[in-house]
Each structure stands twice: as C-alpha cells, then as structure tokens.
Specification:
By secondary structure, this protein is an alpha+beta fold. The protein is built from ten helices and eleven strands. Strand 8 and strand 9 (357-364) form a beta hairpin.
C-alpha cells in the first residue's frame, strides 16, 4: 500500500511539473504574439514620424552622416544607413521591404524589447533601432502570463481530481453497499494504483468476513445439532436413574452417562482446537519428528477402539519431517479415526516421499467420498448426508486442513484401491520450513 501511494504521488509530481511547463509554453505562445503586435502598432507612428523628418531634411536625396548624427538618439533610436549588400548580409527581407517600404521588427525579451525598423530610401536602407523598456506594459504582460498559467494549472487540477473522484466514489459505494449487508459484493480492480490496491484489500477482507460469517453460521448449526444428541441421552439416563431397581442397573446407567460426557468432552475439545488454529493463528513449534514412531503409536492406540476394523500398515523407516509434533499427531489421529468410522472392515496407513513432500496415506474400504463432495468435507461442521449417523461434529478434516495450512502442507482426497477414500497428508520435506503466509 505504501509503494502504491508513493507511486501515486510521484505521478502527481511529474504530471504537475509537465502541466506547469505546458502552461508556460501556452501562455508565452498566446501572449507573446499579441504583445508584439500591440507594441509594433505603438511604435509605428513614432518611427513613421522620425523617417518623415529625416526624409524631409535629406530633401529626398541620400541621407548624409551629418543628418544621422544629428537625429541619432533624439527620439531614443540609433540611426544607421545600410547598402543593399549589407542588408542582405543581415538577412533583411528586401522583397517585402521593397513592396511595403518599411519593416518593423520587435523582439520581446525578459526585461526589455529590441525594436528595429528598416526603411527603403532610394538606394539606401535606413535602420532605426533601440532597446525599449516599458514597465507598465511588462507589468500587464506578467500579470496576463500568471493568470494564464494559473488557469491552465487549475484546469489540470480539476481534470486530475475529477478522474480520481470517480474511483473514490466507486469504492465508497462499495463500502456503503457492503455495510448494508451485501456481503457478496466485490469491487472491480481495474483501476490505477492505489485504488486497485484498496479494491484488492477490500475484496480480500470481504471474502474473509463472508467466510467467517458462513463458518460461524455452520458452527452454530453444527454445535446446536450435535450437542442435542448427548444432552438428550444424558437427560434420558438421568431420568432412568430414578427408576433403577438395583445397583447393577444404576452402574450401567452411570456408565452410559459417562460415555455421553466423553462424547461432549471430545466435541468441545475438537471445537476449541479448531477455533485455536483458525483464530489465534499461533505459529507451530517446529521440530524434527520421526514419522515412523508417531504413525505406529497413533495406529496402535486408535484402531483397537474399533474391534471390527483390521489395520494394515506400510511405514517406511527413517523418514523425518519438520513439524509441530503435537499437531502432527492430532492430524494423523483424525485421519485414522475417520477411516475407522467409515471403513467396512479394513484401513491402510502408509508413508512415502514424493515430489518434495513427506506423504501419509490413510485409506479405507468404505463408501468413499464422491468427487463433487471432496471440497465440502473440508468445511467445518459440514458432513455428507451418508455420514449423519456417524459420531462426530464434522471437524475432523477441517482440523487436519488447518494444521497443514500452518505447516505449508497440503491435503489430497482421492479413491483408494481398497474401495473407499484415500486421504493424503502432505508436509514439505525441507529441513527448515518457511513460516506460513498470514492470510
């Protein structure tokens, strides 16, 4: 954003400088021509009078040096006589001089004007010249020049501001509409910097807010739905304790209640972990982990809870990965538990190295995950219709995805040769992980 603003002010500086230079050229072109014409018209009667006096005194003969010396300086003009050859050397337009009888030239300078007049006098060419200073004329000239420059600059500022005003208005309209609840609104980024940067940041912010609100709604729906089942069972079991006729029945009822409390504890544990991963955005505590020991420990502890499931393991020894050991273990546990829940009889856990990643494959022989549903299962609190009778709140894969995101890893879902789903956890195999980009 700082870079874009800096570029904007640089462009403004160059545009302003260009406009200022152009305004000077425009003012000089417009004013100098009129100024020269006016000054020539003012000087012409004086020059005509001087030439008339000199011509009369010369009695229409050649102008002598005595006449030149006498009148030179009398009216502020220096007088001289040129031959035709000398006039050609000075690049005087003799054709125009012959046709008009006289030529008056005025060169406007910064502080004074140079006036030169040529008169055809027989074979001679009379030259009258002076350096003229007219303070009043120069004052008017500079005032006009300043007004012209300011007018051109004002026109530039108006056009520049008007051009940027439409971009600001576009952003303001988007902000107002978004504030009124149009959360799906996005601002086109086809604008010059820094407005394109502002639009891009607004779109990113809007996407995050919309995603958070959607996630919040799913969270409320999921928790309210999944809390009802264990709470209802607890209430039912509590009511059952009132009608227990023996200590054995009472212990069984308490056992059911204890299992429901475990389910509630697991639900809240998953929820707090997911919120911690996505809200706090804490950095993982990276260390070198031996993958073989972690995977074997997870499989040996998780699979026995599912007596009907047979676990196959193909663990490559001596694979090390840079990761947060606690989070990595939790991710693998979630994948193994998910596979056990959905498998018919068999799951398979294997490790491998592929294309710069350390991969952990968890497969099952269950119903699998349809290709068009694979993105949905990664969303929190969203479960496939076929899994509604499976315990849990739909956070397992969302937690895994969040853990992988914090490790710059990836999660892939495809079909397994066993007949069900194959979910692959992929972590970079570099010795040092780069910190994940904050979103």
């Amino acid at each position: 954003m700082y870079y874009a603003s800096n570029q904007m002010f640089k462009r403004l500086f160059f545009y302003s400088a260009a406009a200022f230079i152009c305004s000077i050229f425009i003012a000089v072109i417009l004013l100098d021509t009129n100024y020269v014409d006016i000054r020539v018209q003012e000087e012409k009667p004086i020059l005509e009078g001087i030439y008339s006096v000199i011509n009369k005194q010369a009695q229409e003969g050649p102008i002598s040096n005595d006449v030149l010396n006498y009148w030179s300086g009398q009216f502020g003009y220096e007088l001289d006589v040129l031959t035709v050859q000398q006039a050609e050397d000075l690049e005087v337009d003799l054709v125009q001089l012959s046709r008009a009888g006289s030529i008056i030239e005025l060169v406007s300078g910064w502080t004074q004007d140079s006036v030169t007049a040529y008169y055809q006098h027989g074979e001679q060419i009379l030259v009258m010249s002076k350096m003229h200073v007219d303070k009043q004329a120069y004052l008017l000239y500079w005032q006009s020049l300043l007004v012209t420059i300011l007018t051109v600059l004002a026109l530039f500022v108006y056009c520049y501001v008007h051009m940027h005003k439409k971009y600001i208005k576009r952003l303001l309209n988007a902000y107002e509409a978004y504030g009124q609840g149009k959360l799906s609104l996005r601002v086109p980024t086809e604008m010059p910097a820094p407005y394109s940067v502002l639009a891009s940041h607004f779109n990113t912010m809007a996407e995050k807010i919309e995603s958070l609100l959607e996630e919040h709604q799913h969270m409320l729906n999921g928790i309210s739905h999944d809390l009802k089942t264990p709470l209802a069972r607890l209430r039912f079991a509590l009511d059952m304790t009132r009608s227990c006729n023996s200590a054995e029945e009472y212990r069984e009822t308490i056992q059911f209640m204890d299992e429901d409390l475990d389910a509630l504890d697991e639900l809240l544990d998953d929820w707090f972990l997911y919120v911690g991963l996505n809200a706090a955005r804490r950095e993982p505590k990276i260390q070198v982990c031996r993958l073989e020991s972690i995977v074997n420990k997870v499989v040996s502890r998780s699979v026995p809870a599912y007596s009907q499931i047979n676990a196959l393991a193909h663990i490559v020894p001596d694979i090390e990965v840079n990761a947060d050991k606690k989070l990595l273990k939790r991710a693998i546990e979630n994948l193994v538990n998910n596979a056990c829940k959905f498998a018919s009889s068999t799951i398979r856990v294997s490790t491998r190295c592929c294309d710069g990643y350390v991969c952990i494959d968890v497969e099952d022989d269950g119903a699998g995950i349809p290709e068009d549903k694979r993105a949905a299962v990664l969303k929190p609190f969203l479960r496939l219709d076929s899994s509604r009778n499976i315990p849990g709140i739909g956070l397992g894969l969302s937690i895994v995805a969040s853990i992988l995101n914090s490790h710059n890893g990836k999660l892939e879902i495809c079909d397994s040769p066993l007949g069900g789903a194959k979910i692959t956890l992929m972590l970079p195999s570099e010795k040092k992980l780069t910190k994940p980009k904050s979103s």
